[in-house]
């Protein structure tokens, strides 16, 4: 019998899981329906009546999915040609066994049904004739980028002014700054806002203000680990989260690590399919570099040129092998990786440091279970530790571990929504 706590689910009607499944997911699906519906005219122009009919069929399937979420229907087995289909069949069997019945939206674990929704959305697209490569979140990502331009211009100016003259005595402070800019850029999350756009926060200008909201700060352990490495092949792997300001900040941090000669290579792990509204896909990397090349800001263009050069030199790499990165769009906790995705686990085990970005990756690290907040990060990982690792996460779900006795209660008195708004953050590591 497992000694682990129960998974978060919508069975608790006071939880953020319940709010997500009853309100946020239907709202996101409504926006996806609108996004797909706007494509019908283009499909008709390009492919005639067959194209329009194909678009209408996709819209109908996604509308039906939305209805099934709202009425707590059973989840249906996914059957299509994507590389992960057997994994999803296995997880459906496991959930059915654990629940004693076919999983429904409000009875199954929150992590499972939320991931299932985005995977079923992709199923609707790849089963179509003309919309297999359509990203229903592309417009939202583009608008998010535009909303973040001022913050990105500010960060690019700061980075370009420092990257070619990094001194030994300022290196540690710059490391902390760029690490925490990457952390706080995770506040910008279209999944949390259901695709709504607000002006992006400027993490560079807000670092001192935001420091008080970092509940666990193990950034010094991360610095000490990297600074003490002695190898001719130091590689950092970054498991990505959101496009826009966050991905830009991740690239700035990665470039700093290379410029400071702390590492020799950075590998980025995106999602293989449209995921949680704003998550980075391989094609988004090209999109970002193109946007930077066309920017009217010289520092933004300079960043784009540097990063294109890094990719060309293989100092930056994007892992785009769907058979590997499919794991990041399964509902499995990372503790399953060694047996569900052994090749990915083997690849990550050769990393000098793995950085997991964002809330969903954190939820998967700790299994999205109802842990006591004082449970250690190590224990909550349930044996997952392929290499030295670090999580940079702003809190947007009802789970956090590694806090001191009484700390959660103190924060609760100040802010009853502290777990779910992205206001608070953790930097947690296991070396």
Q: Could you say which structural class the secondary elements and strand pairing correspond to?
A: alpha/beta
**Rg:** 21 Å
Strand content: 5-15%
Helicity range: 40-55%
Question: N- to C-terminal separation?
Answer: 29 Å
Number of helical regions: 18
**What's the rounded overall pLDDT mean?**
95
Please outline the major beta sheet. Answer: 7 strands, mixed
Order of helices and strands: HHHHHHHHEHEHEHHEHHHEHHEHE
Strand order of the largest sheet: 1-7-6-5-2-3-4
Coarse shape: globular
Number of strands: 7
Poorly predicted runs: 193-197
Q: Any descriptors?
A:
431 residues; alpha/beta; 50% helix
Describe what you observe in this structure.
- The protein has 431 residues and is an alpha/beta fold.
- It has 18 helices and 7 strands.
- The protein has helices spanning 16-37, 39-70, 85-99, 110-126, 138-147, 149-162, 168-184, 207-210, 219-227, 245-259, 282-293, 298-312, 322-325, 337-340, 342-348, 358-365, 377-380, 407-414; strands spanning 214-217, 235-239, 265-269, 316-318, 353-357, 389-394, 425-430.
- Strands 1-7-6-5-2-3-4 form a 7-stranded mixed beta sheet.
- Helix 10 (245-259) links the parallel strand 2 (235-239) and strand 3 (265-269).
- Helix 1 packs parallel to helix 4 (110-126).
- It is globular.
- The relative contact order is 0.12.
Kindly summarize this structure in a few lines.
With 431 residues, the protein is of the alpha/beta class.
């Amino acid at each position: 019998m497992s000694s682990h706590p129960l998974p978060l689910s919508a069975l608790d009607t006071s939880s953020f899981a319940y709010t997500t499944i009853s309100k946020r997911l239907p709202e996101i699906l409504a926006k996806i329906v609108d996004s797909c519906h706007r494509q019908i005219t283009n499909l008709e122009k390009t492919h005639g009546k067959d194209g329009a009919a194909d678009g209408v069929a996709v819209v109908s399937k996604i509308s039906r999915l939305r209805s099934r979420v709202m009425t707590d229907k059973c989840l249906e087995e996914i059957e299509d040609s994507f590389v992960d289909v057997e994994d999803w069949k296995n997880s459906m069997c496991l959930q059915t066994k654990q629940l004693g019945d076919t999983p429904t939206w409000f009875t199954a674990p929150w992590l499972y049904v939320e991931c299932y929704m985005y995977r079923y959305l992709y199923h609707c697209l790849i089963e179509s004739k003309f919309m297999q490569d359509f990203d229903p979140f592309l417009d939202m990502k583009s608008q998010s980028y535009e909303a973040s331009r001022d913050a990105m211009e500010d960060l690019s100016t700061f980075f370009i002014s420092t990257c070619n003259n990094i001194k030994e005595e300022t290196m540690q402070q710059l490391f902390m700054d760029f690490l925490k800019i990457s952390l706080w850029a995770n506040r910008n999350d279209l999944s949390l806002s259901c695709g709504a756009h607000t002006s992006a926060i400027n993490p560079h200008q807000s670092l001192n203000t935001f420091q008080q909201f970092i509940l666990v700060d193990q950034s010094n352990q991360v610095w000490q680990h990297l600074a003490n490495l002695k190898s001719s092949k130091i590689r950092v792997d970054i498991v990505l989260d959101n496009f826009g300001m966050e991905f830009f900040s991740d690239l700035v941090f990665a470039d700093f690590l290379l410029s400071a000669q702390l590492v020799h290579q950075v590998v980025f792990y995106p999602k293989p399919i449209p995921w949680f509204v704003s998550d980075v896909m391989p094609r988004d990397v090209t999109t970002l570099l193109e946007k930077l090349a066309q920017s009217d800001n010289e520092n933004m263009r300079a960043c784009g040129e540097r990063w294109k050069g890094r990719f060309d030199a293989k100092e930056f790499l994007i892992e785009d092998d769907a058979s590997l990165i499919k794991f990041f769009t399964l509902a499995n906790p990372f503790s399953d990786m060694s047996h569900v995705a052994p090749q990915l686990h083997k690849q990550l085990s050769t990393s000098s440091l793995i950085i997991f970005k964002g809330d969903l990756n954190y939820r998967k690290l700790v299994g999205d279970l109802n842990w006591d907040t004082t449970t250690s990060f190590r224990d909550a990982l349930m044996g997952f530790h392929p290499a030295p690792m670090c999580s940079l996460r702003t809190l947007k779900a009802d789970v956090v571990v590694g806090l001191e006795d009484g700390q959660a209660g103190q924060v609760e008195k100040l802010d009853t929504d502290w777990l779910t708004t992205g206001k608070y953050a953790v930097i947690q590591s296991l070396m």
